[in-house]
Structure formats: structure tokens, C-alpha cells
């Protein structure tokens, strides 16, 4: 089992400098620290300007989902962000245990299916993070939920964005039955062509793109492959937070309009 202590910048303290972007994200950790120093963090949390960009983008887009989708078909994952040594946003990821019956050894965000006792999606994501990696919910400030994704198992997966402002207080405790390793990567790597490749796959009659990112651990001992639903969620999250699209094409070309135009001309 691999676990890198938060005292080493949560884990990957010597991140590749080529992965750091100049563009400023919507989330600004400096405003968090300033509020904490003036004891206004708790009172003014939901009014702070650093969350407004995300809230405006998300507003009214998935408000009804919590009442529409049943708990049996609902899951949530935690996009837990913290500030790296160079001021960059980093996101916590896990490598699933080889003991698991589904997706063993794959990279994932902390998360899982909603339980009956979970109040909402945030509660699901925080509970799963505590169970999987020992991340206490009191350390995470939930900012918002992003648009839901549909997994290949037809689960509705809700990404929950949270901030870990006091990363030094996080002491990872991995559940060996679920997690083999914990690591973190720069969020902006999911907007770059570097170390990225895409595969075209089919699901029934549907063709889709599977994005895969490679990340080498600072000690050069392991290369993590981040793909599937996790990669798609993080591409979208990075696009929202940095307010720019990825440098690569997210989707397959849509030829439906071309086919419609050709059919229309052929019938004339």
C-alpha cells in the first residue's frame, strides 16, 4: 500500500513545473486565508467572491436533480482541491484496491453510491472520502455540485467540489479494502495535451471518446493512468474553474448536421 503523507505537500511535493498554468482559477485560496485570519471565514463563507464564478456557472442547471433521480441510481464523487507549493490548484485522487470486484487498480476520485442516511450528494461524497482515505469532513468546505455524469453502469454521478485549505491537518488513513494508494495532481493538467491521449470506443451503438492522462509520481516509481469517467469529470471541472476549454477536442466530430444537409439536398 502506498500512502504519501500530507507533510510532503499532501503527496507529490515536487510536481512538474511544466504543468503549472499562468491563468488564474476562479477559486482563490488567498481569500480563504484572509477570512480565517480575521475570524470572518465561517460567517461570510457563502458570500466570498472566490466561489461566485462557479456558482454563476452552475446556477439553475441541476437544481431539480436531487428530487428526480432515485438514490439507488445515484452516486457522488469528491473533487477535493488544495493549494500546492507553487500556488497551483491540486486535486486528490486514489488508486482503487486490486481487491475490488469492479474497476480494480483504476484511478478514481473518492466517492461512491448514495446511502439512505445521506442527506444529499455532498454528504455522500464526504462520507465516502472519510471511509476511503480518512479525510474528515470538517476539513473540507463544499463549494458546489457540478453537472452530473452518467456512468456506463447507468449511475448518475454528481461531482462535488470541495476545498481543503488546511492540507497539513489531513492525515491519510487508507481503507485497504478499497484503496491501494492516494496521490494528487495539478488540476490544470486536464486542460493540456501533454501526457494526454484519446481512444474512440463503442457502447452499444454509441461511439464516444475515452480520455487518458498519464501522471508520473515525483519519486518516478509509478505512472498513474487517469481515464474513463474520472478523466471526463476532471476535464469539465478544470474547464469550469479555469474558465477555458481544454486544448484538445473533448468529443467525436458531430456529422449529424452534415448528413441532414446532404439528405435534404438529395431530396430536392
UniProtKB/TrEMBL annotation:
Cofactors demanded by this protein: Mn(2+); Mg(2+)
UniProt superkingdom: Eukaryota
GO molecular function terms listed in the Swiss-Prot or TrEMBL record: coenzyme A diphosphatase activity; guanosine-3',5'-bis(diphosphate) 3'-diphosphatase activity; metal ion binding
Gene Ontology annotations for the cellular component aspect, listed alphabetically: cytoplasm
InterPro entries per UniProt: CoAse, NUDIX_hydrolase-like_dom_sf, NUDIX_hydrolase_dom
Coiled-coil ranges from the UniProt annotation: none
GO biological process: acyl-CoA metabolic process; coenzyme A biosynthetic process; coenzyme A catabolic process
Record-annotated Nudix hydrolase domain positions: 72-206
Pfam families xrefs: NUDIX
Keyword match Hydrolase: yes
Name under which the protein is recorded: Nudix hydrolase 15, mitochondrial-like isoform X1
Naturally occurring in which organism (per UniProt): Nicotiana sylvestris (Wood tobacco)
Gene from which this protein is expressed: LOC104249426
